[in-house]
Automatic annotation (TrEMBL):
A molecular function GO annotation: dihydroneopterin aldolase activity
Gene3D superfamilies named in the record: 3.30.1130.10
Name of protein: 7,8-dihydroneopterin aldolase
Pathway(s) per entry: Cofactor biosynthesis; tetrahydrofolate biosynthesis; 2-amino-4-hydroxy-6-hydroxymethyl-7,8-dihydropteridine diphosphate from 7,8-dihydroneopterin triphosphate: step 3/4
Domain Dihydroneopterin aldolase/epimerase: 4-117
Length: 123
């Protein structure tokens, strides 16, 4: 299956279990792997036959900078669902959300979740 990869999308959100995370917020980095058939776009050279990267960014921004969630797992799930709703040609998606410097004991560069969803899973 063909893929569109968008890496290192950065957003500022207020997700986390602790009140200070919800009040102060922090940066989140998102990587997306969108699986779809790109053969028609490759032959036609028309944006209407592909998935617009700018629109993908805006959907991701709306989710990550939107409603605060306790878990980045919930953010990733919502992001996948919104992508299926926005792009009818999207067949499957992998979402990675990276949360730098999580407020947990010890020293961490980041905590991340990765989910993979297929269209038949979408509600």
């Amino acid at each position: 299956m063909d893929k569109i990869l968008l890496n290192g999308l950065m957003f500022y959100g207020y997700h986390g279990l602790f009140p200070e995370e919800n009040k102060l917020g922090q940066r989140f980095t998102v990587d997306l792997e969108l699986k779809c058939d790109l053969s028609k776009a490759g032959q036609s050279d028309r944006m209407n036959d592909s998935i617009d990267y700018g629109q993908v960014y805006e959907v991701a921004r709306a989710v990550v900078e939107g409603e605060a969630r306790n878990l980045i797992e919930a953010v990733a799930e919502e992001l996948a669902q919104q992508m299926f709703e926005a792009f009818s040609s999207l067949e499957a998606i992998t979402v990675k959300i990276d949360k730098p410097g999580p407020p947990i004991p010890g020293y961490y560069q980041s905590a991340s979740v990765v989910i993979e969803r297929e269209r038949n899973y979408a509600k």
